[in-house]
């Protein structure tokens, strides 16, 4: 059992965890994280979001943060220095898109400076409170180089996304690691990419271990991260399937109730 004195590192997801339903960090949460920084805790934010999208969000915390983005495909230092990057090869993405995926799915290829998509999706656009990472509607068949950070599909019907995932993995299980960051968000990264792998690189750089870490998450892309850390908490608003799978983890109040900040304040700052 990890105790208060052994915790040196705080790791948190963004959407559904640190961010409220309006995709913002509350003033209360900001104040708690600033206090944690003043008490010399190392802070890592690990998200499925692209780094250009995540930068303004973590900056609003008002304290230095290591940033893991695209589920581990990018790592940036608190000074925004790129420490690690890994992309999916163009041929692997072309092979998936050649499956003639129905246009009812929104398909997104996350590139370094822009995200390319088959159609406009207001629900996806709403996740960016600042449009630092703009969408571009394209014809994927006309693009020669499709190498990218992440391949992404969204649909309001989770079961259709599961069917699409299974269809893609029939011939691509050796190419991709997949995750459902939300029930309506299916994401594919290179096989070597995962939040937990990226976090370990940071911990090794800073001479800490997973056993000295506490983590918070709400999605299946957080699963390995939650299982790796000495102490892990799952959000009340997490998908029920994840809460059932990780039933040994304590459930804390939702993202809209500042669950992460309240827990950290009580455990580490009281």
* Order of SSEs: EHEHEEEHEEHEEHEEHEHEHEH
Q: What is the topology, as strand order, of the major beta sheet? A: 5-4-3-2-1-12-13-14
Helix vs. strand class: alpha/beta
Taking all Cα atoms into account, the compactness measure Rg is 18 Å
Separation, N- and C-terminal Cα atoms: 19 Å
Helix count, per DSSP?
A: 9
Largest sheet report: 8 strands, mixed
How many E strands? 14
Helix content: 25-40%
pLDDT averaged over residues: 92
- The coarse overall form would be globular
Chain oligomer state: single chain
SS strand fraction: 15-25%
| Contiguous runs where pLDDT drops below 50 for at least 5 residues | none
Q: Can you walk through the features of this model?
A:
By secondary structure, the chain is an alpha/beta fold. The protein contains nine helices and 14 strands. An eight-stranded mixed sheet has the order 5-4-3-2-1-12-13-14, sandwiched between helices. A six-stranded mixed sheet has the order 8-7-6-9-11-10, covered by helices on one side. Strand 10 (176-182) and strand 11 form a beta hairpin. Helix 1 runs parallel beside helix 9. The radius of gyration is 18 Å and the shape is globular. The mean pLDDT is 92.
Question: Topology, please?
Answer:
Elements: E1 9-12, H1 27-38, E2 42-46, H2 51-59, E3 66-69, E4 74-76, E5 82-85, H3 90-97, E6 106-110, E7 115-117, H4 122-125, E8 135-137, E9 150-154, H5 158-172, E10 176-182, E11 185-190, H6 195-205, E12 213-217, H7 223-228, E13 231-235, H8 240-245, E14 250-252, H9 259-269
Parallel strand pairs: 1-2, 1-12, 2-3, 7-8, 12-13, 13-14
Antiparallel strand pairs: 3-4, 4-5, 6-7, 6-9, 9-11, 10-11
């Amino acid at each position: 059992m990890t105790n208060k004195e052994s915790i040196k590192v705080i790791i948190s997801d963004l959407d559904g965890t640190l961010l409220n339903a309006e995709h913002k960090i509350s003033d209360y949460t900001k104040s708690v994280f600033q206090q944690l920084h003043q008490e010399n805790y190392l802070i890592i934010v690990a998200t499925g979001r692209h780094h250009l999208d995540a930068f303004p969000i973590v900056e609003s915390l008002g304290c230095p943060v290591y940033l893991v983005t695209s589920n581990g495909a990018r790592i940036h230092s608190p000074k925004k220095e790129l420490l690690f990057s890994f992309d999916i090869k163009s041929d692997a993405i072309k092979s998936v898109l050649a499956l003639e995926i129905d246009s009812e799915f929104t398909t997104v290829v996350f590139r370094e400076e822009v995200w390319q998509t088959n159609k406009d999706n207001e629900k996806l656009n709403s996740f960016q409170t600042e449009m630092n990472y703009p969408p571009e509607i394209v014809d994927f068949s006309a693009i020669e180089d499709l190498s990218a950070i992440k391949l992404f599909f969204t649909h309001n019907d989770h079961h259709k996304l599961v069917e699409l995932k299974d269809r893609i993995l029939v011939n691509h299980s050796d190419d991709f690691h997949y995750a459902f960051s939300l029930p309506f968000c299916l994401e594919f990264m290179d096989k070597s990419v995962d939040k937990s792998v990226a976090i370990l690189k940071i911990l090794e750089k800073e001479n800490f271990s997973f056993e000295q870490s506490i983590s918070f998450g709400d999605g299946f892309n957080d699963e390995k991260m939650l299982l790796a850390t000495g102490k892990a908490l799952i959000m009340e608003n997490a998908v029920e399937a994840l809460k059932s799978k990780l039933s040994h983890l304590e459930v804390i109040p939702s993202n809209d109730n500042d669950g992460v900040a309240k827990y950290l304040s009580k455990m580490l700052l009281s």
